[in-house]
Design a protein that fits this description.
about 325 residues; alpha/beta; Rossmann fold; 2 domains; six-stranded parallel β-sheet; two-stranded parallel ribbon; 10 strands; globular
């Protein structure tokens, strides 16, 4: 089956035996794999029958709709390790059918998650040094690239990288963030994969796309400034090898909601349980609008806590729709319905 690649910087050329006229007439290969570039107006598959969106939380409502609208009612499959509140809300409403893969790949180690305050950082760095000395690798994540905010306590990756080079010496510490060009990013990731770097200091850019089985430690500073889904995605960068891994969430927790978020992460690795907690904390967003979180304008009731009531209402709605369908001219009536 021919496969076409489309990204912002790379578009594969057609095979030599593919007539140019056929491509101009919409004769794309059967499968096209790509990034957000597939949403651009220049990409117009003539017979789009199936849309598969991986890492669904990386796409906005409008972006997903724009991709689906390139076909005439194509089938849609969205995949994610942690459903965003709106996705779980649509599932509760019955708008999405859900399949769950709740088993880890074979021979994966266990991940233990701890919540610590900044007072524990000296012990955290000592633990990272021990892991690096034992031949393992670590990620350290910060919320900002530069210009730390002293008022809020937010740390920046550029400043912390310089500090950690000294703190974690003699182990080699790399730096990765979104402002590096593509070649620089690839060089840093390649050095980390090849174990030429023992520690990678980065922003949340690492939450998808990195698979380094030897990395067994994830330290996230200012963890209270990240969302539940994002923290779960970041934690997913470790635990990819046979050995056990450790995730350390460092935060000066200031609010009850932030404490609740971190407590959920420490207690479970179940993506759906995390999504349910996120739904309760942030709300499902708009069913028909663009907001992917936030509380709906209900005068009474709660979407997450009143799940049985939602399911009952959904069943009644399905019965009413079935009754309307049987009233249509030419509709076939099934006995017993």
């Amino acid at each position: 089956i021919p496969v076409h690649l489309r990204t912002g910087s790379l578009k594969t050329e057609p095979a030599d035996d593919t007539p140019t006229e056929a491509l101009r007439g919409g004769g794309l290969p059967a499968v096209t794999v790509g990034t957000h570039a597939l949403i651009e107006s220049g990409f117009a598959p003539p017979r789009l029958g199936l849309v598969i969106i991986d890492e669904q939380h990386k796409f906005g409502v409008v972006q997903r709709e724009a991709l689906v609208r390139k076909g005439r009612y194509p089938h849609l499959l969205v995949m994610t390790a942690t459903p965003i509140p709106r996705t779980l809300g649509l599932t509760l409403y019955g708008d999405l059918d859900v399949s769950v893969i709740d088993a880890l790949p074979a021979e994966r180690g266990r991940i233990t998650t701890h919540v610590r305050t900044e007072a524990s950082l000296p012990k955290v760095w000592e633990f990272v040094r021990r892991e690096a000395a034992a031949g393992r690798q670590a990620y350290v994540v910060y919320p900002r690239v530069e210009e730390a905010d002293l008022q809020t306590g937010l740390k920046a990756v550029l400043q912390e990288h310089a500090r950690l080079e000294q703190t974690l010496s003699p182990h080699r510490v790399g730096l990765l963030h979104g402002r590096l060009d593509a070649a620089e990013k690839e060089a840093v990731m390649g050095a980390f994969r090849d174990r030429r770097l023992q520690v990678l200091v980065a922003t949340s850019i690492i939450e998808v796309g990195l698979d380094v089985p030897n990395a067994t430690v994830m330290v996230i500073e200012n963890a209270d400034r990240f969302g539940l889904a994002q923290l779960h995605q970041l934690r997913g960068r470790i635990g990819r090898g046979k050995g056990d891994s450790t995730c350390i969430l460092v935060a000066g927790v200031r609010t009850q909601e932030a404490r609740a978020r971190l407590k959920v992460l420490a207690e479970t690795q179940d993506g759906f349980r995390i999504a349910e907690a996120d739904l309760q904390l942030r709300g499902p967003g708009e069913l028909l609008g663009q907001s992917q979180s936030g509380l709906p304008p209900f005068r009474f009731g709660d979407l997450a806590r009143d799940l049985k009531l939602v399911e009952q209402a959904r069943g009644i709605a399905a019965q009413l729709l079935d009754q309307e369908e049987t009233k249509r001219p030419g509709a076939r009536c099934t006995p017993g319905r």
